């Protein structure tokens, strides 16, 4: 149950369910589709802000989206900038939905029912309670469903047009693994001579990016910051930054991992350069970087001198005895068991934490056996085996569980730990050194390389969509005027 590969079977539903209800309702307010029968009425009442191909964005849509953002209490740019930003976002959304429909991408009512049910369950609500919450925002259930349908259509369209077209060669995977092997053996990959003090240099920076832009509410901002700080702590430990980034992105598709490549300081974002100005090659920036788009965890992979007139090619590493072809490498595996209390209506976090703390105290006092408690109280498939999860390696478990487990000594029982699945009590039974297979390494490598390529491909795709669409801005500055 706890293994990552099982989590991904419901990736889309989990992603949508992970959103807060407030942000979903806010989005619903500003993403309403218009049927031809109401076209003229809306044009008269709301006013058209922009014509987008054969459709349009109304000024009321802009007003609704801005009002929803203001309700979240987030600091926003000035009114003119905000209005232009929101209009551009609505235009891009409209283009994607139009193109998805032209390509025959659909979302059935059955699929939509399942997504809504997953969101209700994630928020510990019945369907009836969810509808009440939606109505309380001033929206309607039908509009909410349409918002979800549009989101899924855009996601499927993006997956087909961008993600499915990213190609990764075997040579790229081999080179990635070879670099990691050299780094593990030599403490870092030195590809060139460091610059003398004050001399021109290029810096190779990698980032793990957790998005949280100005439209995110205070809760979403805090959650993104917490995640970034957690990743920074891991990055400062004895972990592979490239693997950490790839696995974070695999856990949450919204998180992006990217190697920016060699850049001179003037070609790096100023915020990034200030954060890593005095950071050496192979070192992680001391603090999380906050930008208007979200939070960034940075690592300097390498720093090298810029030689005047030299071609922009990477120097080959010095010859050594470090194997550069994929080989099995040793990793630490942990044998652990747990007791899980699932998140559900009727069980508050406080109650779950209190119950597990009671089980922990019984085990520590030797008045109860962990395995027997797991058989009796754990709410997952491992209960029959006393909560035994089998041997787990790096990346096999969700991060919160993995981090708590790795801090435990053999035989030690954790404090209650919360993950997306509920609350856990963990006990480590044994540890061993085992080989990480070549195939597993190649999976990590492909995930990391894909994240490097995705962000640029996605931005290029959005620009192409915008450039090839027929868009005419009519009057976006004035708010909609309702009839008297």
Would you summarize the structure shown here?
By secondary structure, this protein is α+β, with helices and mostly antiparallel strands. It has 17 helices and twelve strands. Strands 3, 4, 5, 6 and 7 form a five-stranded antiparallel beta sheet that branches.
Q: What's the total count of β strands?
A: 12
- Rg, rounded, reads 25 Å
Shape: globular
Beginning-to-end CA distance, first to last residue: 58 Å
- Biggest sheet, in brief? 5 strands, antiparallel
Q: Tell me, rounded to a whole number, the average pLDDT.
A: 77
Give the low-confidence spans.
1-45, 186-191, 308-326
Proportion in helices:
40-55%
CATH C-level category of the largest domain: Mainly Alpha
Please name the fourth-level CATH homologous superfamily of the largest domain.
Porin chaperone SurA, peptide-binding domain
CATH topology of the largest domain: Triger factor/SurA peptide-binding fold
Known CATH architecture of the largest domain? Orthogonal Bundle
Please identify the structural class as seen in this structure. alpha+beta
Order of helices and strands: HHHHEEHHHHHHEHHEHEEEEHHEHEEHE
Number of helices: 17
Number of domains: 3
Please report which band the strand proportion falls in: under 5%, 5-15%, 15-25%, 25-35%, 35-45% or over 45%: 15-25%
């Amino acid at each position: 149950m706890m293994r990552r590969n099982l989590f991904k079977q419901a990736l889309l539903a989990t992603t949508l369910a992970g959103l807060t209800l407030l942000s979903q309702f806010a989005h619903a307010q500003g993403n309403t589709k218009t049927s031809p029968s109401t076209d003229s009425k809306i044009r008269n009442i709301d006013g058209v802000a922009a014509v987008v191909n054969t459709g349009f964005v109304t000024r009321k849509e802009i007003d609704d989206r801005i009002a929803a953002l203001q309700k979240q209490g987030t600091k926003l740019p000035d009114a003119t900038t905000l209005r232009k930003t929101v209009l551009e976002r609505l235009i891009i959304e409209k283009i994607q939905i139009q193109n998805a429909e032209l390509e025959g991408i659909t979302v059935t009512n059955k699929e939509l029912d399942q997504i809504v049910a997953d969101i209700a369950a994630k928020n510990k609500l019945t369907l009836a309670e969810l509808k009440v919450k939606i109505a309380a925002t001033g929206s309607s259930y039908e509009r909410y469903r349409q918002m979800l349908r549009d989101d899924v259509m855009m996601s499927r369209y993006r997956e087909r047009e961008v993600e499915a077209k990213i190609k990764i060669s075997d040579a790229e995977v081999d080179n990635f693994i070879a670099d990691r092997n050299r780094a593990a053996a030599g403490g870092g990959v030195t590809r060139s001579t460091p610059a003398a003090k004050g001399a021109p240099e290029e810096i190779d920076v990698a980032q793990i990016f957790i998005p949280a832009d100005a439209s995110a509410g205070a809760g979403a901002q805090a959650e993104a910051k917490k995640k970034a700080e957690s990743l920074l702590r891991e990055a400062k430990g004895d972990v592979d930054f490239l693997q950490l980034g790839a696995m974070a992105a695999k856990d949450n598709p919204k998180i992006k991992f990217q190697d920016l490549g060699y850049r001179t300081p003037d070609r790096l974002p100023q915020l990034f350069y200030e954060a890593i100005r005095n950071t050496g090659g192979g070192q992680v920036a001391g603090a999380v970087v906050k930008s208007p788009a979200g939070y960034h965890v940075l690592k300097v992979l390498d720093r090298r001198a810029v030689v005047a007139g030299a071609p922009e090619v990477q120097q080959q590493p010095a010859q050594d005895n470090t194997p550069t072809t994929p080989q099995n490498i040793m990793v630490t595996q942990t044998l652990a068991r747990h007791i899980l209390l699932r998140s559900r209506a009727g069980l508050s976090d406080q109650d779950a934490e209190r119950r597990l703390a009671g089980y922990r105290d019984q085990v520590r006092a030797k008045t109860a056996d962990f395995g027997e408690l797991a058989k009796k109280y754990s709410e997952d498939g491992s209960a029959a085996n006393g909560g035994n999860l089998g041997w787990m390696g790096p990346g096999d478990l969700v991060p919160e569980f993995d981090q708590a487990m790795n801090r435990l000594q053999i035989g030690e029982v954790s404090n209650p730990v919360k993950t997306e699945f509920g609350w856990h009590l963990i006990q480590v039974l044994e540890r061993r050194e085992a080989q990480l297979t070549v195939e597993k390494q190649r999976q990590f490598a492909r995930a990391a390389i894909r994240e490097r390529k995705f962000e640029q491909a996605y931005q290029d795709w959005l620009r192409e969509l915008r450039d090839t669409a027929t868009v005419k801005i009519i009057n976006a500055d004035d708010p909609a005027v309702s009839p008297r």
